[in-house]
Amino acid sequence: xxxxxxxxxxxxxxxxxxxxxxxxxxxxxxxxxxxxxxxxxxxxxxxxxxxxxxxxxxxxxxxxxxxxxxxxxxxxxxxxxxxxxxxxxxxxxxxxxxxxxxxxxxxxxxx
Amino acid sequence: xxxxxxxxxxxxxxxxxxxxxxxxxxxxxxxxxxxxxxxxxxxxxxxxxxxxxxxxxxxxxxxxxxxxxxxxxxxxxxxxxxxxxxxxxxxxxxxxxxxxxxxxxxxxxxxx
Lengths: 111, 112
What we know:
The structure holds two protein chains of two kinds. Chain A is mainly β.
C-alpha cells in the first residue's frame, strides 16, 4: 500500500557509470517531482512533471534525464556519474493544491 | 520569488518542554505553507499545511502552527516534547503552480 515508492534505496557506484532510479506512485496524482537533498540536508527541486509532460527543469546538468512513461511513473537516469552527484534523491507527487507525498529516498554514493 | 527562512539550524529541548521551531516566509501574495518532518534515513512526512483557511493549523503528533501575516511567520509548536519528536523539520512554501521550496531545516534534539 506504499504511496510513493522508489528503487533502489541505496546505490553505490563508481565515477563515470550510468545509473537509474525508479519512482512509482499509486495515489492518482497528476504531478511528480525529483528533489535532491545534499549532505547539509538542503532540499532542492530538480524536475517537475505534470501528466507525463516536463514542467520544470531547474539548473541541473544535462547528465540528468528524467523520463515519465505514464503519469504514475517518473524515473531519473544519470549519465557519467561524478563524486558531486552523491546525495539523497527524493521522488514526490502531488495533486493541485495539496501537500506533496514523498518517497523514502535513494541514497546515491559515487566512489 | 517566494522563500522561507528557518531560524536556528539546531534546537534542543528537554522532554516535556515546549517545542518552538521558527519559520518566516517571503512572498508577494498569500502563499501555501507547510511543515514536514524527516526522521533519520527516512523520507519527508507532512505534519501540517496552511492553505488560506484557518490561521491556526493543527497537524499530526500534537503539532500546530499559526499563520501570522503581519509577522510573515508560520512557527511550529508542540506543548510537550517527546523523545520520538527528535528529527529534522522543514518549513516549505508554495505559490500557484510552482513547486515546493524548502527552508534549510531545523534539527530538533530532545533531552531526557
